[in-house]
Specification:
single chain, mainly alpha, 64% helix, elongated, disordered N terminus
């Protein structure tokens, strides 16, 4: 197009053709005006729905997986103190063994403290319903007719008055009991973090794959059905996806994952993660299909009016430019025709008259 306009071709036809190309180009792409929003209503629609879809998986991993699948089960605090972290193989002396090895307590005091936590409900989130039952070690040591108090300090004072503690080499006391509670609380916190890492690792991996495949959805923001259209012509985009996927594998399967508090996952969990991530594409296609049956909104009409106005302005400016070029060409040709001063003056007069009519009445009179 540029070579045609700079050669001996008809400049008017060349510029009109350029105007036609610009008009079609603007009509197809529908350029945005400076007063339009950066995020369009269609984009907001996909952002909100995809966000809700990802929140569904977030809550499902946090509250559904630990209940539905034993591999991701989270041991509660009281069960941990009563029978240990492995509910499939309960260990009634797990708490006492932990206090003996961790705090250096003898077996009698360690067992008494663990019973006070779980059986009496003084700690570990256990119920106090069995406080007056045989499960609570205080019941056999309380004065006749007195029930076990609801406060641990009062219970120790009533059960061991004046440091009278038969059966113990050293009397249990409330301060040591509180230290034992703190020790078991820290142990449970660490164990629960280990339990949650199983579900969190799968959650983290699935969320990354949801973001990766949602990048594919984001290639088409005007409700086109084929989100993979011309993806082979976007090497940078493909490279970004490959690098992101490779980094995710490194994070999940190498010691780098310690910084993200995730652990390596197995092949089944990888398949689940990728399948969940891939599912966002059918969700996006379904949204695009349903959008075609929704009534159009007023912003579509306003946008169409803006586009038509823009196209008309571009077309009119191109026609005006072509007419100015034609005036210039005609003036040049006629100025070189007649010989002598009279002919030159006549051409100058004609050119001035033509330019005056063009500036006053538009280019139609040229």
């Amino acid at each position: 197009m540029q070579n045609c306009c700079s050669s001996e071709c008809d400049r008017t036809s060349c510029c009109l053709a350029r105007s036609l190309v610009l008009t079609v180009f603007a009509a197809v792409l529908q350029p945005h005006g400076r007063d339009e929003h950066l995020i369009t209503p269609k984009m907001w629609k996909h952002i909100i729905i995809q966000g809700l879809y990802q929140m569904f998986w977030l809550f499902f991993f946090m509250y559904g997986f630990p209940v539905l699948f034993d591999r991701y089960h989270i041991t509660d605090h009281c069960t941990y103190v009563t029978s240990g972290p492995d509910e499939a193989s309960p260990n009634p002396v797990y708490c006492a063994d932990s206090l003996q090895s961790g705090m250096g307590l003898d077996q009698a005091r360690a067992s008494f403290y663990c019973g006070a936590m779980s059986g009496c409900g003084f700690a570990a989130g256990c119920s106090s319903a069995g406080r007056q039952s045989a499960d609570c070690p205080f019941t056999g040591r309380m004065p006749a007719g007195q029930q076990v108090p609801g406060d641990a300090a009062a219970a120790f004072a009533a059960a061991f008055p004046n440091n009278n503690c038969p059966g113990f080499s050293s009397c249990p006391n409330v301060n040591e009991f509180n230290s034992a509670v703190t020790y078991m609380d820290k142990a449970y916190t660490h164990e629960s973090e280990v339990d949650w890492e199983k579900a969190d690792s799968l959650l983290f991996n699935s969320f990354i794959w949801l973001q990766i495949f949602n990048e594919v959805n984001s290639r088409r923001i005007n409700d086109e059905l084929n989100v993979f259209a011309h993806v082979q012509h976007s090497p940078i985009f493909i490279g970004v996806l490959i690098v992101t996927a490779a980094l995710q594998v490194i994070i999940m399967q190498t010691p780098v994952g310690r910084f993200f508090k995730v652990r390596p996952i197995n092949g089944v969990e990888w398949a689940i993660s990728i399948a969940i991530g891939l599912s966002c594409i059918p969700v996006s296609v379904l949204i695009r299909l349903l959008s075609r049956f929704m009534p159009s909104h007023s912003f579509h009409l306003r946008r169409n009016r803006h586009v038509h106005s823009h196209n008309n302005r571009v077309h009119n400016e191109a026609i005006a430019m072509a007419q100015r070029r034609r005036i210039s060409v005609d003036s040049t040709k006629k100025g070189a025709g007649p010989a002598g001063a009279d002919g030159h003056a006549l051409n100058s007069s004609n050119n001035n008259s033509r330019a005056s009519r063009a500036s006053q009445g538009g280019f139609g009179g040229a």
